[in-house]
Amino acid sequence: MRPGKTPDPRPPIRHSSFEKFLIPHMSEHWDIIITPRRSIFSLNLREVWNYRDLLSLFVRRDIVAQYKQTILGPLWYFIQPMLTTIMFTVVFGNLAGISTDGIPPMLFYLAGITNWNYFAECLNKTSTTFRDNQNLFGKVYFPRLVVPLSIVASNLVEGRKYRFSTIS
To answer: Which of 34, 74, 98, 166 has the fewest CB atoms inside 10 Å of its own CB, making it the most exposed?
Structure first.
């Protein structure tokens, strides 16, 4: 340790003799051990709750942007899954003869497509969240978890509209 430096108050990391055998350099003594200040799973949900109005604004923004960018508008959310369901019913039910164990084939494939589309949309959109909103992150502070949560919530709202309107 250099003169004038304060010692690290954290206890040194202890390794088993088996780890020292596998990695010989672990028996060396280090002056500084870098450890994270917080756990990787500390999400600070209280701060997200304080910004719930921003979360609702992002959800509204996502829904409005989706409806404005399609020619058919919200009608597209009904057409696309229905066409896919009909295609699956014809291919898997009629041509391949795959059983749905007594469940009506249209309902079986519609339920699967709805859940899969929700999962796929959430995964695809949240994977590019930080790249797509990088200009917003640099301008003002807010919890970074709000934007991916808004995408998941907006997909849930859109999916809920679709599910309840086709089942009834």
So the answer is: 34
